[in-house]
Amino acid sequence: MSETKMDGAGSPDSREIDRRSAMPESAEMYLETMLVLENEGRRVRAVDIATRMGFTRPTVSEQLKKLASGGYLVVGGDHEIRFTEKGRRTAEHTYERHVLLSKLFESVGVTPATAVADACRVEHYISDETFDCLRRHYLEHAETSHGQSTEA
Questions:
Q1: pLDDT tens for residues 57-76?
Q2: 7, 23, 48, 118: most buried by Cβ count inside 10 Å?
């Protein structure tokens, strides 16, 4: 069993916290927004992302350039934005966390709006280990509470 190093205040040393990826939260949010738009059957263009996220087109364009250079997406000649395999995998991973955490929070009595807002924050920082344990617990609880399996 590994021991977590503590800083002078008795909190885990930030270098020891298991952050699931080096990708910034904002980049994950862009990918997740693209996936949601796609799942709604909409075209995914910079203007659509800007509208959904409430950002300006130049801000969105700058982030999309970074995501494209990182191999997460490609922009077609028709200005439609498409995932690469790496980008889709990252978006789906983030979105799965969002959905399950929202359901989990609601299952313990958190209001839907607060559950979604909190899930949106937590999904980017929770470790894979903790998420996997929460998912397992949620699915087992949902199975015993409802007599059937619940997919997240």
A1: 999 999 999 999 999 999 98
A2: 48
Same fold, 25-88 and 95-146: no
CA dihedral 95, 101, 106, 110 (to 10 degrees): -110
How far is the C-alpha of 98 from the C-alpha of 38, rounded, in Å?
16
Q: Look up the CATH number of domain 95-146.
A: 1.10.60
Note the pLDDT of residue 2: 40
Long-range Cβ contacts of 11-19 (<8 Å, 24+ apart): 17/127, 18/127, 18/128, 18/129, 19/125, 19/127
Residue 75 phi, psi (nearest 5): -110, 120
Q: Which fold has domain 25-88?
A: Arc Repressor Mutant, subunit A (1.10.10)
